[in-house]
């Protein structure tokens, strides 16, 4: 019974720690990327921006369809008093009316014109004091009208093309944001892993320092070493303990930054599980460059920028331009005291109007604006060429870095083996009294540095391989293009 109470008491004390361990979320790189694609603030903003551009294009396409509208005025009453110069008398008149207008308007995409069908039905009751006459009548005006701009550019078509380019640009930006997210998540994932690894190395070093301290303490107590050796061992142990605490702080800070990027709650406890084993990948440099130049989305964005500069050139050229408008309408209007007989004797009401805007002198404004627009277009073309060169240079740099890292990893592995053997040999020498604690501490530090260097080299290889994937849009690990993956998300 007493033992059971002790166990229960111990369980109550350890329960918060047990809960914390149980609630800890283990994240792999793939799982982290999956969470980030759903919850990352940057991706959410990019998704909303993409949706906004898509809806703007849908709205413009809907605006090219027929518009139906109906306006109704149930009651309109006017009373006026005016002077009739011909009869030299004042006259009071009253008018009460009710009318409604039904309109169908259809934009014409290929000509930038508009064709409209209008029907206006009205009832009117009027009274004039001059001749004491009251008139009641119904009227209906039905006509079709065409308005067509001439000698100018097609504004409807240009606006639609611009919105299509905006949508394409936002799709490219969204795909690039997904790639950047993969890069940022991977970098921060491995930063957390590096800090976990550094903490583990620091704890191993602390454990070794504890062993060294115990050996030194036993030898000092046995009178085999001077007491100063114990002081140095205590200092080494305290320094090692401080290193462990510093690594714990660095790990927690790295976790917070990582959780923010992928969109996890800052209060969720996580640990990462990484596979940093080296799997050398064969890379064809020429294929990497060709695929990057063909598929890199930044190049298409530069081309879109040039196309939009051409649109600006068209708009600039349209300032102070000679242009005109043709308006033609044809219809029937009828009126009668009875609404059924409105078209008993209809009247045709054709209408034609041709207008021109003729600029006379603009003091060179249009010429200067055209020159500025052409200069901007040339800048965009130069940027496109520079972007191509940057892509080639960057791919070459990553390729060289990967080759170099493979060599560095092999060297780092050999260094770790040598450092482990050296530490084991010198630990035995220390036990035998042939080495001071300060010398042993140097070998311990060397072992920790070599382990960290190997881990960092392996992670750097993984990151550079991902960088090559982003730069070329080709995954050399699985020999598949990346563009289809990003465009489907």
TrEMBL record:
UniProt xrefs under Gene3D superfamilies: Outer membrane efflux proteins (OEP) (1.20.1600.10)
UniProt keyword Phosphoprotein present: no
Major location category of this protein: membrane
Residue ranges the record marks as coiled coil: 395-422
Stored Pfam families: OEP
Keywords, comma-separated and alphabetical: Cell outer membrane, Coiled coil, Membrane, Transmembrane, Transmembrane beta strand, Transport
Family membership noted in the UniProt record: Belongs to the outer membrane factor (OMF) (TC 1.B.17) family.
Protein name as catalogued: TolC family protein
Native source species: Splendidivirga corallicola
Lineage: Bacteria, Pseudomonadati, Bacteroidota, Cytophagia, Cytophagales
